[in-house]
Request: fold
Amino acid sequence: MSNKINNVACIGCGTIGAGWVTRFLVNQIKVKIYDPTPYAETRLEIVIKNTKRAYKNFFPNKTINFKNFEYFNEISPAIENADLIIESVPERLDIKQKIFENIEEFCSKQTIIASSTSGIKPTDLQNEMKNPERLMVTHPFNPVYLIPLVEVVGGNKTEYKFIKKIIDFFNSINMKPIHLKKEIEAFVADRLLEAIWRESLWLIKDGICTTSELDDIVRYGFGLRYAQMGVFQTYRTAAGEGGMRKFLEHFGPCLTWPWTKLMDVPEFNDELIDLITNQSDQQANGLSVTKLEQIRDKNLVEIQKALEKNNYGAGRLIKKARVKKSP
Amino acid sequence: MSNKINNVACIGCGTIGAGWVTRFLVNQIKVKIYDPTPYAETRLEIVIKNTKRAYKNFFPNKTINFKNFEYFNEISPAIENADLIIESVPERLDIKQKIFENIEEFCSKQTIIASSTSGIKPTDLQNEMKNPERLMVTHPFNPVYLIPLVEVVGGNKTEYKFIKKIIDFFNSINMKPIHLKKEIEAFVADRLLEAIWRESLWLIKDGICTTSELDDIVRYGFGLRYAQMGVFQTYRTAAGEGGMRKFLEHFGPCLTWPWTKLMDVPEFNDELIDLITNQSDQQANGLSVTKLEQIRDKNLVEIQKALEKNNYGAGRLIKKARVKKSP
Reply:
């Protein structure tokens, strides 16, 4: 097996698939694409436009060929000779299994098949495959061309050599692969996001705050800490000289304080959907999603450039990318 | 009642109290301090040093008098003539109530008494006060001199004119006050943090990831989004043209997927404390808390300067502060 990944195919080109495509393009990797849905090509054009804008700000002196891809109407020519196939089709096990069946007919046994699923366990995905040892989850985050994190998760039958190869590859394209040694549904990031989301729904439903106030509480508060240190290192820093042990002993008991009642799941009825939708509309203040995407990307670039100044966290990847010579 | 807050007293000068002190100092507000504990003055010196370093980077041309405070050994001279008294003593209702009893003996009925509590409801705090109408919670975030958010919460007996006055005051010192209209234990930010924390403990306990991997998953992933847009606006942006309603209808059912079993509280025993403490020690890689604080502050400054470039979120406050004329 060659150690290099040169030929990449993207199966499914929605928001996530298109984000993978441009992540590869800005790293001088040619991409073959298969997506039979009518809206896919238009979506890709928008994502290319967004990526162009963002990378002009990130790396003003870098020349990027944004036409370095081919679009196919059938799956077989798209995956021919591929070293890596990234699947980003809808989140249903049966749809994904069907795609894997198709793929396995036309590609080598050495080709890595990586699923972008945000919730399904790799052991379930690989269950009916002929060569399940090269199947794994590589769960990215929106927008894929700007958020470096990718969760890498193997199933029961996945062989480590394939995991190792994809981790090296992701490192080479300035992503941050985190290999989870145990698989659980939804992996790690979405577990945390789900916990916050559940609590957020209660807070809105109970009228404690509005969506706009909640967002302000995050982005003017702990969001500024999470962008750099995450959960544990932040608390370690706040713990003072007593260290993590003292912090844990001090705050541990809080877990059983009265607000744990909020661990129930709120009923997701029309009333709650209306409440959130209306508050969110008001909060967006007329900004279209296209405009919001541009704002988000501009901020993601500047925040990472800021961390680059301190050679810290996500900024280290940018610094590394900047000094790396072109191939 | 005068509309201006000129004289501020800080009762309790630990990490949070000292953070309040320097937040006031950088805004040219003189502070009187009362804290009888032996370590308080040393702690304040460290916080002043950290604040100096951070603000030199934030506002290089600004002259700040970091000696504009007085330290008292008794409570009465510290609060004499105060327009605002900020209480940051340990998180116990009985201790806080005792302090309020002392305070009320020596200050005017018009003096605002604001508690930094991160969990106790203002209605409980004001329960035994002579003039409970001027008591409220103003919950800040560590480090107070760099994180703009402050949750403002009144109790049953709090009068709105006092809330209004303190909100105007916080705005004038470049903070972001969010007024919560209903009180609940732990307010909003700490509810969200508690939800993440609970889930994090499970993930570590179950061996899904280490503290270092979890932190990387946050800071290379959604932390970069939270620093600018928060929870709802981020999802709105990701939702695409279908808008928030489509997003909710699509993802709502996930709430009852299998991982909701993780809503239980993990047992906080020695084994879990050891596991987290050891992983956190390894992650810190020999960096002292003092060093970690410096790193955190440097990043907080750069991230907010980055957002300032785009005049967005927390960066708007910095931009506003920069153009504001000295008094």
Remarks:
- Residues 270 and 276 of chain B are 10 Å apart (CA to CA).
- Chain B touches chain A through 112 residues (CB under 8 Å).
- DSSP finds 13 helices and eight strands in chain B.
